TrEMBL record:
It is found in: Cell outer membrane. This is OmpA family protein. PROSITE patterns: OMPA_1 (PS01068), OMPA_2 (PS51123). Residues 657-774 form the OmpA-like domain. GO terms for cellular component: cell outer membrane. Its main location: membrane. It comes from Xanthocytophaga flava. Residues 1-25 form the signal peptide. SMART domains: TPR. Pfam families: OmpA (PF00691), PD40 (PF07676). Keywords: Cell outer membrane, Membrane, Signal. InterPro entries: Bact_OuterMem_StrucFunc, CarboxyPept-like_regulatory, OMP_bac, OmpA-like, OMPA-like_CS, OmpA-like_sf, TPR-like_helical_dom_sf, TPR_rpt.
Length: 774
């Protein structure tokens, strides 16, 4: 990265003073020396080659392993580094005086903070004197490891996704920058643009690249066209601004300065110095111009006795907007004695994101944010963005969108493809958690119960909901958390405590269903005499109180036994959209509980793969509903405050459909004494149509059946016409008429008693389907 020199020089000063040599074979010693020279030039890959050769020239060698450990650490191959350092000590307990320093660094990079602190303390207490100049640096590392342990124990809700080979390479990539439409990504890479232009490090000069895509998915990158890139000069993009028509650019000229390029006719112009104060003999690696172009923040080593970077600000002069005011250093609450770099401002210009090696960093550069208060003209104490945004490595060049939920960052954390890589930073998505609160034994819905969800790992991540009259609740929660749930009565009494794990969501708004069964007595449970238990009926007529709970318990079977996992949905008869759904459990049982709120009819649809769909119609009898053969006497024959309907379904068609198999087609209605299909029949008939489409070889009989009221001739005639009406509907939908036969049976094949109307004669009036040939 642009400012990499400071980190590398610090590491190499330690390295060159630390590396020592023992007596060993001349060829291995020579190769190790060559490795050290390559390391001195930061040509890490070449250094690795020499150390590996030294390690094999005369067998395993402790000093070669030690060199491999240090070099891999500087290449951010953290796990490999730790393995090599451990191997070095196995071969020679006194391999190097500064072994524990590097071992601590390797543990630190691998997030093993306790082991890192222990190694640092051995180094401080046993290897270097109390007055050694390195004491302060190592004590800082101990402090950073302690910070790291804290951040690791309470990670923030962000995913970090490597952008992959379309953007990253074995070389350094950094400084992500998005266009306003978020469809083009600019970034900087040290991949060799020209094989003849290789730096002493063994990589290329920094150049600006672009790629197209979105989010974490990008196409192959290409060199930015125009005049921004320059041969044998490090060039890096810094910021797009002024509607993407201007680009702030870094170049290695004058020890590192900021320039400006302008987009003219689709081509970027040759960069010119941005301002006098960003084009000095000091180091000015990064900056940010706010939205209206009136203020610029930039990093500079100006007036810093240690040569470290601070953040500065300059404003355009009101009397001459082509000129800038004298730069002002941001206050000490933002700047520290260490480096501050990579400023990025929110759209309102009040939140500043930046990277720092000071403050409470867990190692290297960490990303921080601070907020400006216009009334007091002060900045808040910077907040560390936490793990996994930050790591013990360098985490820098952070940018974010207007929502604060998505962004990009440069990092040399464990798992990079080479050196620094670019990552997408994505906040965990919220999900909709919904379900029902019911009494465990009776499944009656419980309204006005309070549900409190609290994350088990992060304070402040929580949510609350109140169950409605139907027992249903719904709320939004952050995914990727396990929550402790308390269900309370209105008086505060806790009736249930449970754990709910919400997995990481793939997209915003995903739904998670979680029902809660409360183990309390049902004080208004329906008496046994008030229950209707019905065996394999497709039409059930019941009168219920619409303001109370309607409980439906069902059992689904086929001819062989119970059917587990069958989908059961319930809808209003006038709608094709279910409002509740569930699946049968291991015993083939399902439960519904809800408060109707009105007098209406319901349809229960039961579907199972490779089975014929099955419908149960729950019909509310109402005065004047004569077209469904209900008398005033029938209306009073059932009067329940609460209904528990149990249906045992014994007919469904398995995949091995047998000739002669038949089933009732529930949900088909005709006008009184007529063969005219009522509109609500369409839902059931469409299910039959879909079944016939999926099974094109089936030949089917549609049978019409009546009760025993009236003469045999009239009933047979009416049943035939009704069966034919169903056949005509299916033919009109596209089923070949050769596959369908209509037969009227009249009242010759009742399936229940004809002694009474309700749940008797009304059930016998039906349409059945029968498989003639498959």
């Amino acid at each position: 990265m642009k400012n990499q020199y400071s980190l590398k020089l610090t590491s190499l000063l330690f390295l060159l003073s630390f590396l020592g040599f023992q007596a060993f074979a001349q060829s291995a010693k020579s190769l190790v020396k060559k490795g050290d020279k390559a390391l001195d030039k930061e040509n890490y890959h070449k250094a690795l080659e020499y150390y590996k050769q030294a390690n094999t020239s005369n067998g395993e060698n402790a000093d070669a392993y030690f060199g491999l450990g240090v070099t891999n650490l500087l290449l951010f191959n953290n796990k490999e580094s730790l393995d090599y350092l451990r191997k070095a000590r196995e071969l020679d307990a006194d391999v190097d005086k500064h072994y524990y320093y590097w071992l601590g660094r390797a543990f630190h990079a691998n997030l093993q903070f306790d082991s890192a602190v222990a190694s640092y303390r051995v180094y401080l207490n046993d290897e270097i004197g109390k007055n050694d100049s390195r004491q302060d640096a190592v004590k800082t590392l101990i402090l950073q490891a302690e910070f790291g342990k804290t951040y690791l124990s309470s990670p923030v809700d962000y995913q970090i996704v490597n952008l992959g080979t379309e953007v990253n390479s074995e070389y350094s990539e950094h400084s992500p920058m998005l266009t306003k439409d978020k469809q083009t990504l600019y970034f900087t890479s040290r991949r060799p643009a020209n094989p003849s232009e290789i730096t002493p490090r063994g990589d290329g000069w920094e150049n600006v690249y672009t790629t197209s895509g979105k989010g974490s998915h990008w196409s192959g990158a290409s060199l930015l066209t125009g005049q921004v890139n320059e041969r044998k000069t490090h060039t890096s993009n810094v910021q797009l601004y002024d509607n993407d028509e201007k680009m702030l650019v870094y170049k290695s000229s004058k020890f590192g300065s900021l320039y400006e390029s302008v987009l003219n006719g689709g081509t970027w112009s040759k960069p010119k110095p941005f301002a006098k104060f960003t084009n000095t003999q000091k180091f000015e690696p990064d900056g940010f111009v706010i939205k209206d172009g009136s203020v610029v923040y930039f990093a500079s080593s100006l007036d810093n006795k240690n040569g470290n970077l601070d953040l500065w600000i300059s404003r355009r002069k009101e009397e001459d907007t082509t000129k800038w005011s004298e730069p002002e250093r941001l206050p000490n609450i933002v700047n520290t004695d260490a480096d501050e770099d990579a400023p990025f401002l929110s759209e309102d210009g009040l939140t500043l994101f930046f990277s720092s090696r000071g403050h409470d960093s867990m190692g290297g550069y960490d990303v921080y944010k601070t907020t400006y208060e216009p009334f007091t003209r002060t900045w808040s104490k910077p907040i560390n963005m936490g793990y996994p945004i930050n790591t013990p490595g360098d985490d820098i060049y952070f940018i974010t969108d207007s929502t604060g939920k998505n962004g990009y960052i440069t990092s040399n954390r464990q798992g990079t493809m080479g050196q620094e890589d670019i990552y997408m930073v994505k906040m965990y998505d919220d999900v909709v958690v919904k379900g029902q609160v019911v009494i465990k034994t009776t499944k009656r819905p419980l309204g006005d119960y309070i549900l409190n969800f609290d994350s088990q790992r992060k304070l402040g991540v929580k949510g609350s909901a109140l169950s409605g009259a139907d027992g249903n609740y719904s709320l939004k929660l952050r995914s990727g958390h396990t929550y402790t749930v308390e269900v309370r009565k209105q008086n505060g009494e806790v009736v249930l405590t449970d754990d709910v794990e919400i997995p990481m969501a793939e997209s915003e708004g995903a739904e998670i269903v979680k029902n809660f069964e409360i183990d309390i007595p049902d004080t208004i449970r329906t008496a046994a005499g008030q229950r209707i238990v019905l065996q394999n009926l497709n039409l059930v007529r019941v009168k219920y109180v619409e303001t109370d709970s309607l409980l439906i318990n069902g059992e689904v079977r086929d001819n062989a036994g119970i059917l587990a996992g069958a989908l059961v949905e319930i809808r209003e008869e006038s709608s094709n959209k279910p409002f509740l759904s569930t699946k049968t459990d291991a015993n083939g049982v399902y439960h519904f509980g809800f408060i109707p709120g009105k007098q209406t009819n319901y349809v229960i649809e039961i579907t199972q793969k490779n089975y014929f769909p099955y419908l149960v119609v729950l019909n509310y009898p109402s005065p004047g509903n004569t077209n469904k053969f209900v008398t005033d006497q029938d209306l009073t024959s059932v009067a329940l405050n609460q209904v528990d309907v149990r249906s045992v379904l014994t007919y469904a068609f398995p995949i091995d459909i047998k000739e002669g198999a038949k089933a009732v087609l529930g949900g088909v209605y005709f006008d009184f004494n007529s063969a005219d299909l009522r509109p609500e029949s369409n839902f059931a008939l469409d299910k039959l149509y879909e079944f016939l489409k999926r099974n094109p070889r089936i030949i089917m009989e549609i049978g019409g059946h009546t009760d025993n009221l009236g003469t045999a001739y009239v009933n047979k005639f009416l049943s035939q016409k009704r069966a034919q009406a169903v056949v005509n509907y299916l033919i009109k939908k596209g089923i070949d008429k050769k596959r369908l036969t209509a037969v009227g049976y009249g009242f010759t094949q009742p399936i229940t008693t004809n002694d009474h109307e309700l749940n008797g004669r009304d059930v016998n009036r039906r349409v059945e389907v029968k498989i003639l040939r498959k």
